[in-house]
Amino acid sequence: MTIKDIAKEAGYGVGTVSRVLNNNPNVSPQARQRILEVIEKYHFQPNTNARRLKQQTAQGIAMIVKGTHNMLFAQVLVELQAQCNAAGYSSMVYYIDETDNEVEQAARICAEHKPYGVIFLGSHREHFTHELTQLGVPCLLMTNSAADCAIENLSSVSVDDMSAAARMTDHLCALGHRDFGIIGGFLDTSQPSAARLSGCLSVFSRMGLAFEASSRYVAARYTLEGGYRGMERLLEQCPDVTAVFAFSDIMAIGAIRALRDHGLRVPQDVSVCGFDGLELADYLIPRLTTIRQPAQKMAERGVSILIRCIREGAEAVHELIPYQLVEGESVLTINNKEE
Amino acid sequence: MTIKDIAKEAGYGVGTVSRVLNNNPNVSPQARQRILEVIEKYHFQPNTNARRLKQQTAQGIAMIVKGTHNMLFAQVLVELQAQCNAAGYSSMVYYIDETDNEVEQAARICAEHKPYGVIFLGSHREHFTHELTQLGVPCLLMTNSAADCAIENLSSVSVDDMSAAARMTDHLCALGHRDFGIIGGFLDTSQPSAARLSGCLSVFSRMGLAFEASSRYVAARYTLEGGYRGMERLLEQCPDVTAVFAFSDIMAIGAIRALRDHGLRVPQDVSVCGFDGLELADYLIPRLTTIRQPAQKMAERGVSILIRCIREGAEAVHELIPYQLVEGESVLTINNKEE
DNA sequence: CTGAAAGCGCTTACAG
DNA sequence: CTGAAAGCGCTTACAG
Questions:
Q1: How far apart, in whole angstroms, are the C-alpha atoms of residue A163 and residue A199?
Q2: Alpha carbon distance B327, B332 (integer Å)
C-alpha cells in the first residue's frame, strides 16, 4: 500500500495525496475529504524512509544512555525528555552496553537517524576524542564535565564534583569524623569519581588527616552489590572507620546493608553518606545524607544549551549547576575519644 | 557526500561502491581497497533512509515503555535487551508518557521504524483493542496477562497476579494477621491491581474475614510518594491494621517511611510486604517480604515467544511464569490477643 | 568483476 | 486547486 494506490483509489494524483498527508492548504475540501476517507479505509501510513529521503529531514534529539541501572540517569532522562518535548523536539533513547564505545555508537546512530543533537548520559572519558566532531551535530554530556575535553561541539552540564565531595567531607569533619572510608568508582574510567576523590583529599590534607587511599578508597561498580562488597572490604581493611562516603546513593544503600549484616548500625555505629540525591534517598530508613544533583535543573539547562547550539550554532559551553547538601539521618556527630 | 561522489573519486561505478559497502564478495581486491580508502578519507556514511527505502528492511524489536519510573520495568528491560541481542535482533526503546495511548504510539513507531515486533511494558487494558492487529507484526505484553484480550497477534508473559496476591495473603494470615490494609493501583486502569486485589479477597472470604474495601484498599500511583500517602490514608481510615500489602516494592518503601514518620516501626508495630521483588528490596532495612517476578526468566520467555511468532508465524501465547514469595524481615508473626 | 539503469515511496517546484 | 515529472541516495538484477 503506497501513496500511488491511495491516489488511484481516490481518483487523484499522488501529488494531491501527498499534499493532504502533509496538511498542505492547496487542496480542495472535497479532494481532501475523499482522500482522507481512502487513507482511513486502509489505515495507510506513509513510508517514513521515503519521506525522510526526500525531505532529508532530521529526527529530534538522540539520548545515549550507558547502562540501564543508573537511577540518577533514569531521573535525568525523564526530565530531559520533558524538556525536549516542550521545546518541540522528539527524543529517542538508546541504551548501550556499559562496555560499548559511546562515540562509535553515536556515529552509528547519527548515520541511521540523523538527529539534530546527541545527549550522552554516562561516559568513559577516553572515548571522547575529537572524533566526536565528525558527528557533525551538537553534543551534550550530562552529569559529567567535559570542559577539559575541549571538543568544539561538546557541551556539558554537571555539578562540580570536586567541590561537592569536598563540601561533604568538610561536613563530616565538622561533625567530628576523622576516620574515613570511601566507596567510589574505578578511578581509571570514572572521571567523576576521580574528581570527587580529589575533593575529599584536598580536605583531608587541609585538615592534616592521613588518608591511606590504598586501603580506605575502595573501587566498585555503581550498584547495590558494589556498595555492599565495597563496604565489606572497608570493614576488613580499616575497621576503625566512623564515616563512609559512598559516591552514589545506590552504593550507600548497599553499604548500609552490609554494615547491618555485620552487626553495625547506621548512623549510631558508622555514619554513611551518599551522592546523587535520588528521590529514594529521602524515603530510606535512615534518610540518606547525600549530595543532591538537581536532575530537573540540569536537564533544563542541558536542553536549553543544546538547542542554542542546534538553532543558532552557538559555541559549546560547560555549565556547572549548584549541588545541594541534603542532611538526612544517616550521619551522626561523633565524639572523638582519642583526641 | 553520497555514494556517487565516492564512486567518482574512486574511479568506479556506484554499483561497485554499494557492493563494498554491503560486503558483497563480487568486488576485486584492488577496487575494494581503493573504495575503502575514499570512504575512510571522507568518513562517508551511507544514507540509511535511502538504504532502507530500497531494502524495505525492518529494524529489530521495538520496546514501548510506559512511564520511566517503574523499576521493575527497568530491570526487565535490561534483560529483554540482552535476550534480543543474543538472538541477533537490535532493540530500540521508546518511552512514552503514562497518559499516552500505547497502541497509537506503537502504530506511529511501526510506521517509522518497521520493527519485526513490538514489546509493551505497561499498559492500559482499554487501549488493547483489535486495532493492534493492524500493526501487522507480532506483539508482546510483559508483566501483565493479555489472555483475555484475545488479540491474535498479542502474546503475553506475566506472573499469575491473582494467585501471587492470594499466596502472600495466605502467608500473612498464617502468621496471625487479620487486620489488613492494601495499597494498590487504580482499579479502573490497572489490570494487575484488580487481579491482585481479587486474589486477596478470595483468601479473606475463605478465611471468613471482613474486608471493607472502601477504607482498607487505597488506590495510589506506583511511586514512593504514592505509597507514602497511601499509608497515611490507611492510618487514618483503619489505624488497627497489623499488615499492609503494597502492590509494588516502591510503594512499600514509601509506606514504611510513612509508618516511621508516624512513630510506628516495621515490622514490630506493623508488617509490610511488597510486590515485584526488586533487587533493591533485598538491600533495604528491613529486607522486604515480597513477591518476586523473575525479570530474567520473564524476559527470556518473552523474547523466545516473540521470536517464534516473528520467524515462524507462530500463534500468540499467554504464558504464566512462576513467581516466588521472598521472605524478608518486614513481616512479623502476630499474636492476636483478641482471639 | 563491473557499470548502466530501474526502481524503492515519497515531496515539490513547475506548468497549467 | 491539480497532475506529471524530477529527484532524494541507495541496491540489485541484468548484461557484459
A1: 6
A2: 10
Give the pLDDT confidence score for residue B68 in this predicted structure: 66
> What is the DSSP secondary structure assignment for residue A269, as one 8-state letter?
T
pLDDT single digits (tens) B227-285:
999 999 999 999 999 999 999 999 999 999 999 999 999 999 999 999 999 999 999 99
| pLDDT < 50 positions in chain A | 337-339
> Cell for A157?
552540564
Structure confidence by residue, pLDDT tens digits, A294-312: 999 999 999 999 999 987 8
Question: Which bases in strand D are touched by protein, i.e. have an atom under 7 Å from a CB?
Answer: 1-5, 7-13
* B280·A253 Cβ contact <8 A: yes
Please tell me if residue B44 touches chain A, with a CB cutoff of 8 Å. Answer: no
**Do B257 and A283 lie within an 8 Å CB cutoff?**
yes
**Residue with more model confidence, B58 or B114:** B114
Q: What is the DSSP track for A293-313?
A: --HHHHHHHHHHHHHHHHHH-
Q: What is A161-292's CATH number, 3.40.30.10, 3.40.50.2300, 3.40.640.10, 3.90.700.10? A: 3.40.50.2300
Q: Indicate whether B1 pLDDT > 90.
A: no
Q: Would B3-55 and B61-159+294-322 be classified into the same CATH topology? A: no
Residue numbers in A near B253 (CB within 8 A): 280, 283-284
A71 CA to D10 C1' in angstroms comes to 41
Whether the CB of B260 is below 8 Å from some CB of chain A: the reply is yes
Which of A117, A84, A72, A124 lies closest to A103 in space, CA to CA? A124
Question: What is the per-residue pLDDT for A59?
Answer: 66
CA distance B209 to chain A (A): 32
Set of chain A residues whose Cβ sits within 8 Å of the Cβ of B53: 47, 49-50, 53
For residue B325, count CB atoms less than 10 angstroms from its CB and return exposed for 0-12, middle for 13-18, buried for 19 or more. Answer: middle
Is the Cβ atom of A52 within 7 Å of strand C at any atom? no
Q: How confident is the model over B33-55, as pLDDT tens digits?
A: 999 999 888 878 788 778 878 87
Which residue from A53, A81, A92 is facing B49, i.e. has the nearest CB? A53
